[in-house]
């Protein structure tokens, strides 16, 4: 499954808020070293959870209104959103296992 790149509120509404699946959101920027390290991990997770969880990337430089709405002050920030609600969040780079645990805990509650 490919990652969707979101750059405006209309795409956000359609691909995140209105999604029937939980959505894993990667808030990142081109210039952010840790973000570039997390990118391939997010792509692997998108394949691992294909059909169960949707994955999107939000470049904070292109979609600063979304970053502001969710109080993104540090990147990378990774969130799991379901039915419009943030159900899990991780600030800063972490291991694939850490993100998998975050997803699994959230899926077990939903």
Brief overview, please?
The protein has 4 helices and 5 strands; from the N terminus they run βαβαβαββα. It has 110 residues and is an alpha/beta fold. The longest helix is centred in the middle third of the chain and has 16 residues, at 33-48.
Main beta sheet: strand number and arrangement?
5 strands, mixed
CATH H-tier superfamily? Glutaredoxin
Gap between N and C termini, in Å? 22 Å
**What structural class do helix, strand and pairing data support?**
alpha/beta
Number of helices: 4
- Secondary structure tally: strands: 5
Topology record:
Layout: E1 4-6, H1 9-17, E2 23-28, H2 33-48, E3 54-59, H3 64-69, E4 77-82, E5 85-91, H4 96-109
Parallel strand pairs: 1-3, 2-3
Antiparallel strand pairs: 2-4, 4-5
């Amino acid at each position: 499954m490919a990652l969707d790149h979101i750059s405006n509120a209309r795409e956000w509404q359609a691909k995140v808020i209105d999604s029937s699946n939980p959505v894993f959101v990667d808030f990142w920027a081109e210039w952010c070293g840790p973000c570039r390290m997390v990118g391939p991990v997010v792509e692997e997770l998108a394949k691992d959870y294909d059909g169960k969880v949707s994955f999107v990337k939000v470049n904070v430089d292109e979609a600063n209104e979304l970053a502001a709405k969710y109080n993104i002050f540090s990147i990378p920030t990774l969130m799991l959103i379901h039915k419009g609600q943030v159900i899990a969040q991780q600030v800063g780079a972490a291991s694939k296992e850490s993100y998998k645990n975050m997803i699994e805990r959230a899926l077990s509650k939903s």
